[in-house]
Specification:
Elements lengths: L2 H11 L4 H9 L2 H16 L154
Length: about 200
């Protein structure tokens, strides 16, 4: 018996109708998020019942979205501080101006994601895939980018002060106006940095 079924049985014994119990459960933020994610997966599969996840400006602090499929989702201005997005699929997701401070994005797929102006300070991006991602003006200060793949990413005017760049791939990345790269001691261990930064 699932937890909701057990709760339903308990509430019915205590006099709450099944309909009232379900209304109360559906009002909970976790239920709405699970439903949004399920509808998004259907949307990705071209199911007519599917709906693209629209989590603009959503408050998702410390939420567990490990291995979630949010490919193409709208998370503009979302508050994802300390969220667990480890192994999540965020390919082509809209994350512009999102707050991902201290988030766990280990091995997450952010290929072609829009992270323009996003706050990724102190985020863990070890082994993350950021090929062709737009990180223009993003704050990556103190972030762990060890082994991250930033091939062809746009890092124009991004802040990399105190970021861990060991084994980070910068092949063909746009680094115009980047902040904190020249003074970063871990840049020596980064891969494919242009000559002016080595």
């Amino acid at each position: 018996m699932t937890m909701d079924a057990k709760n339903l049985a308990k509430q019915c014994l205590e006099g709450e109708s099944p309909k009232a119990f379900m209304r109360r459960q559906m009002a909970k933020p976790e239920f709405r998020l699970r439903r949004t994610l399920a509808q998004h997966v259907k949307w990705l599969a071209d199911d007519p019942d599917g709906i693209r996840a629209d989590l603009r400006s959503a408050s998702l602090r410390s939420v567990n979205l490990m291995h979630a499929n949010l490919s193409g989702a709208n998370l503009m201005h979302a508050y994802l501080e300390r969220a667990n997005l480890r192994g999540a699929n965020l390919t082509g997701a809209a994350l512009g101006s999102a707050n991902l401070r201290g988030a766990n994005l280990r091995s997450a797929n952010l290929t072609s994601a829009n992270l323009r102006g996003a706050n990724l300070s102190y985020a863990y991006l070890g082994g993350a895939y950021l090929e062709r991602a737009n990180l223009r003006g993003a704050n990556l200060s103190g972030a762990n980018l060890r082994g991250a793949d930033l091939e062809c990413a746009n890092l124009e005017c991004a802040n990399l002060e105190r970021a861990n760049l060991e084994g980070t791939n910068f092949l063909n990345a746009t680094l115009t106006g980047i902040i904190g790269l020249v003074d970063n001691p871990t840049r020596k261990h980064a891969l494919s940095l242009p000559a002016e930064f080595t």
